[in-house]
Protein: Zinc metalloprotease
Amino acid sequence: METVISFIIIFGALVFFHELGHFLFAKRAGILVREFAIGMGPKILGITKGETLYTVRLLPIGGYVRMAGEEMDRIILQAGHRIGVLLDEDGLAKKIILNQKTMYPDIMFLEVEEADLEKELYIKGYDEEDRLVRLQVARDAVVEENGAETVLAPHDRQFDSKSIGHRFMTIFAGPLFNFILAFFIFTAIGLLQGVPTNEPVISEVTDDSPAEEAGMQAGDLITEVEGTNIASWNDLVESVQDEAGNALDFVVERQGETVEFTITPELVEQEQGDVGVIGVLYESPREQDFFGSFVYGAETTVFWFKEIFRLLGMLVTGQFTIDALSGPVGIYKTTEQVAQYGIFTLMSWAGMLSINLGIMNLLPLPALDGGRLMFFILEALRGKPVDRQKEGMVHFVGIMLLMLLMIVVTWNDIQKFFF
Structure:
């Protein structure tokens, strides 16, 4: 149960902040947001506030922000439609009723001749006395169909009507907020647990390792590798992990004296890819530092950003296979393992996942945020947008391929963890 709760909280927080980025920047650009959803599938909870419906859905595998002007959103009244209209005190149409089943005392019935509910905002039609009337529609009018109400979206409040800059930032804000969330998580760890000094001091040398064979000892402070200054443990890791099989010159401080070693990192297989190691362990002491916690949050976010990009590059170049990828099942099982090491380790895992989600969404693949951003860049270069039907087809194919990838990854996770 603890694992289930941890998984729901972590995954829910990542999705919430991602969609919150889209939502806030859409609002800032003046785009009408119809729904803010956490989860996918059937709705289990819904609250309408203002013009937006906030929902929690059954499957905790994602979320979305549905903006006005997207597919299946437009309301079109065609000639011959019979509708009901309610007018406000200024004579503007405030409610348009389709498929009317309940009666309103002041309803006006019209047979539509023509209408524009996006730009000019009017309805022209014949009333019950067969007179041709033209009604102006209020900008915040509501369309009711079979008991469900939809707020009208004038053209200037639709996503596609906004500038490339506003559309770009609205989509980019999702991954951006994942990076911001990771920064706050790592900063919170620094504030609560203390900031690691991160000095490259060895706490233990493993048996039969290259470091032990060279004579390295616990307490040694590594200052240089191949003539490059080493200021932190992360610097040491980056200097060694890609150098398996290559002899490296180390300079360390030991009890005030300088000692030099030549060590050849050995190759170790890991789920994230093969890396070079010398066989030393690290336990950094922590200190309370309010301002340092923010620096620690930024540095850790940048470190994991670079590390995930490195692993992504290894996947692209074939240095490890698709079997190393994990889906929701794999994330759940890893969360179960991580939770055993305490709340701070679980928080670090959440921060890393948030960065990973942000980066994955920025990949220039159809149906992802990165794919949509690529179409905006192409529109800026061409001076005109790509045909919406062609773009929609590209995204549809992308969704199908992503679903296929998800099925393959999930099956691999099931095989790995349960069989």
